[in-house]
Amino acid sequence: xxxxxxxxxxxxxxxxxxxxxxxxxxxxxxxxxxxxxxxxxxxxxxxxxxxxxxxxxxxxxxxxxxxxxxxxxxxxxxxxxxxxxxxxxxxxxxxxxxxxxxxxxxxxxxxxxxxxxxxxxxxxxxxxxxxxxxxxxxxxxxxxxxxxx
Length: 149
Prior knowledge:
The chain is α/β, with parallel strands linked by helices and about 150 residues long. The chain has one domain (about 30-145). The chain contains four helices and seven strands, in the order αβββαβαββαβ. The chain has helices spanning about 10-25, 60-65, 95-100, 130-145; strands spanning about 35, 45, 50-55, 75-85, 105-115, 115-125, 145. The strands form two sheets. A five-stranded mixed beta sheet has the order 1-6-5-4-3, covered by helices on one side. The protein has a two-stranded parallel sheet with strand order 2-7. β5 (about 105-115) and β6 (about 115-125) form a beta hairpin. α2 (about 60-65) packs across α4. It is elongated, with a radius of gyration of 22 Å.
């Protein structure tokens, strides 16, 4: 009769720690977060956009004008906001700051009609916002929505 071979096992505390570590590290990527607040907006053909950058930044405006012909009279506004040099002094993030590149910048693109938020794109960055970040965000917006040139 063959003996049954037991598989080695990890004690529960070690297994729990490894699971926690995996979940902690896998949730800390620099992936964009996209939210569609109005489901109808993905079916609506947008014939124009107005651009608003806050805080004002001529470099970001110039980069966006290379990507699209914005019109000031449009009811749909693409609001771009960003912040560079973010510092987090919380000890709760000490492990994350030690183990990886902690974000110091964010980029947010929001599509609004009046005050109503329709669509949002957000990404944490480890470097100042550059033209590639704007191009990637606007490309994602274009793929999610029906935007005319």
